[in-house]
Amino acid sequence: IDEKINSLNKIKDSFHKFQHKFWREEIILDESTIKLINDFLIKYIEIISKLSVSNIQHQQGDYGQSFDNWDKSFGLVKSDLAKIKNELKKEFRKTLEICKP
Predict the structure, then answer these.
(1) How many C-beta atoms lie closer than 10 Å to residue 28's C-beta?
(2) CA distances from 43 to 3, 24, 60, 90 (A)
(3) In this predicted structure, what is the pLDDT of residue 87?
(4) Closest CA to 34 of 98, 84, 97
(5) pLDDT at residue 1, as a whole number
(6) Which residues contact 74 (CB under 8 A, 6 or more apart)?
(7) What is the DSSP secondary structure assignment for residue 12, as one 8-state letter?
(8) Measured between alpha carbons, how far is 50 from 47 in angstroms, rounded to an integer?
(9) Which residue of 23, 45, 48, 56 sits 20 to 30 Å from the alpha carbon of 7, by its own alpha carbon?
(10) How far apart are the first and last CA of the chain?
(11) Quick check: 43 and 80 in contact, CB under 8 A?
(12) Segments of the chain assigned E as strands
């Protein structure tokens, strides 16, 4: 459980750094990119919330629910978050193509 807590805290810290960096830089981004990043952030918050609940459930001895929430979180990472990430890659590549001399 301590390993899960440490991992979750690292993930939360990285997320907050990313979120603050995005807020500083969003003024230079295209609206479609901003929308995708916001979608990414919302999905990330959902995943972190499920992981946090899973952690609490585990500490309370509700291992079945804990596992279900942990499993759902990683399912979202592999499906929804991966999809948004791929869309963001396409957006960034389009932007880079426009910026080429």
Answers:
(1) 8
(2) 23, 20, 26, 19
(3) 92
(4) 84
(5) 62
(6) none
(7) H
(8) 5
(9) 23
(10) 52
(11) yes
(12) none
